[in-house]
């Protein structure tokens, strides 16, 4: 499976990724480490570029892609997370993959 999603719901053609806030450069939580900045900047930028590429590829294959930030799994964000997931499950099926 492209990009190794954390969860795959094959029958619904939904894949879910849980992105670590640090590794994937979460806009809310990411803090640049105070040493070796350029190393980390490059590393996180490469991860983000790969995330976008993987999402695009999967969508093109007809999958619905949900990306969840690690911090959204916190108990206080439960409601929002449930909202996000149910919005996806209500979306009309992505249909046949475009080749
Ligand atoms: Zn975060």
Topology at a glance:
Elements: E1 7-9, E2 14-19, H1 37-60, E3 64-69, H2 78-90
Parallel strand pairs: 2-3
Antiparallel strand pairs: 1-2
The structure holds zinc ion.
Residues 21, 26, 28-29, 69-71 line the site of zinc ion.
Write a brief structural summary:
With 99 residues, this protein is α+β, with helices and mostly antiparallel strands.
Fold and architecture overview:
The longest helix is centred in the middle third of the chain and has 24 residues, at 37-60. Strand 1 and strand 2 form a beta hairpin. The mean pLDDT is 90. The chain has a 3-stranded mixed sheet, sandwiched between helices. The radius of gyration is 15 Å and the shape is flat. It starts with 6 loop residues before the first strand and ends in a 9-residue tail after the last helix. The chain is α+β, with helices and mostly antiparallel strands and 99 residues long. It has helices at residues 37-60, 78-90, and strands at residues 7-9, 14-19, 64-69. It has one domain: Endonuclease, Chain A (3-Layer(aba) Sandwich), CATH 3.40.960. The structure holds zinc ion. Residues 21, 26, 28-29, 69-71 line the site of zinc ion.
Order of helices and strands: EEHEH
Hetero groups bound? Answer: zinc ion
Report the count of strand segments: 3
Mean pLDDT: 90
Radius of gyration, in Å, reads: 15 Å
Instruction: Please identify the top-level CATH class.
Output: Alpha Beta
CATH superfamily: VSR Endonuclease
Low-confidence spans: none
The residue fraction in helices comes out at 25-40%
Second CATH tier, the architecture: 3-Layer(aba) Sandwich
Strand order of the largest sheet: 1-2-3
Q: How would you describe the shape?
A: flat
Structural class: alpha+beta
